[in-house]
Amino acid sequence: MQELHTNALGQLYNPVRQAGSVSPAHWHVLGAGAIGCLFASALRRSGCPATLLLRAGEDQDQATIQVEREGQTTQVQLGASPVSAPGHIGHLLVTTKAQDVHDAVLSVAHRLDASSQVLLLVNGLGFDHTLRTELPAPAYFHGSTTEGAYRLQRRHIRHAGRGVTRIGQPGRDSAPDWFGQWRRAVSPSHWDPLIAETLWLKLAINCAINPLSALHRCSNGELAGPQLAPQVAALCDEVIEVSAAAGFAKVTTHLHQQVADVISATAANRSSMLQDVLAGRSTEIDYINGHLIAVARHYGISTPHNQALYDRIIKLGN
Ligand SMILES: NC(=O)c1ccc[n+]([C@@H]2O[C@H](COP(=O)([O-])OP(=O)(O)OC[C@H]3O[C@@H](n4cnc5c(N)ncnc54)[C@H](OP(=O)(O)O)[C@@H]3O)[C@@H](O)[C@H]2O)c1
Description:
By secondary structure, this protein is an alpha/beta fold. It folds into two domains: 27-192, 3-Layer(aba) Sandwich (Rossmann fold); 197-315, N-(1-d-carboxylethyl)-l-norvaline Dehydrogenase, domain 2, CATH 1.10.1040.10. Helices cover 35% and strands 19% of the residues. It is built from ten helices and eleven strands. The chain has helices at 34-45, 101-106, 129-134, 179-185, 195-216, 229-245, 255-265, 272-278, 289-298, 304-315, and strands spanning 27-30, 50-54, 62-69, 72-82, 91-94, 117-120, 139-145, 148-153, 156-161, 165-168, 189-191. Strands 8-9-3-4-2-1-5-6-7-10-11 form an eleven-stranded mixed sheet, with helices on both faces. A hairpin with a 2-residue loop joins strand 3 and strand 4 (72-82). The termini are far apart. Mean pLDDT is 92; it is low at 1-20. NADP nicotinamide-adenine-dinucleotide phosphate (NAP) binds at residues 30-36, 55, 83, 95-98, 100, 103-104, 107, 122-123, 145, 147-151, 272, 284. The site of NADP nicotinamide-adenine-dinucleotide phosphate (NAP) has 27 residues, from helix 1, helix 2 and strand 8.
């Protein structure tokens, strides 16, 4: 790795450390966008071999990631490889949008086997159901992060806000071997034995904030105003009912307050769905409100507010 410029980036970018006697996992990163570049550079800087997986046609074996933070830029060089290349992948970090996970992971299926660890660090739920059936061999893990980053240019990102990353595998209490190295690279990261609950809570909060802000093209804070706050409350009520049916009653006990807290803490922010709508990109709606609606249908619950919002986001050309 050649570091052309470094700075004190604090928590996320720890200095290079020895990983003890365990040889570091080689992470292949599928989805070289904002979060993929952020985590790939952090892994590389911490001493893990890291390789960006590039779309077919991009034939290069090296890539440079630039990370801007607080006015300073760090450059990290790491390996690159087209998805179609041969070679086993032991550790795969998936950071595409939810709607791209299935096709992206299948494009590297020939490089995965039963020893492969696949970490899906992707917003939303339900994007992996078909994938797991079609490609059952690897061990799948889920992640959720409150880190904030966006792309300035290709492989040039701004790290806009620090956050916490939680990783887990439903039903598994203890972390796998690779997690110690991961935690040193991407800090703070926590092993989360209740990752299913964590992901459901994130979905619940996103259902109430993301599509409404995208539809009204407003900042998160504007959702607390007199016009939109009743709609937020109605969405939360539906989510709470679905959560109870799906076994997540405890997770959403305080959903109204938690959503209000997120709206307040991120008042100036534009939700990721609003950013996607403004940029003319497809959104993750199918894996946020769409997933909630599918679960509601399964339990015979009607969710008119979520459905109406879903329909309107889809009509925007999602
Ligand atoms: N950005 C954040 O601050 C943030 C925070 C928390 C959670 N998240 C979540 O993290 C996930 C990633 O978000 P992001 O903001 O990093 O998205 P992004 O910047 O759009 O990056 C996604 C990347 O995936 C690539 N990709 C898609 N399909 C692919 C394929 N088949 N093969 C190879 N590469 C493929 C895209 O390539 P192209 O550019 O060529 O299409 C793009 O580089 C989302 O679920 C998001 O909700 C993001």
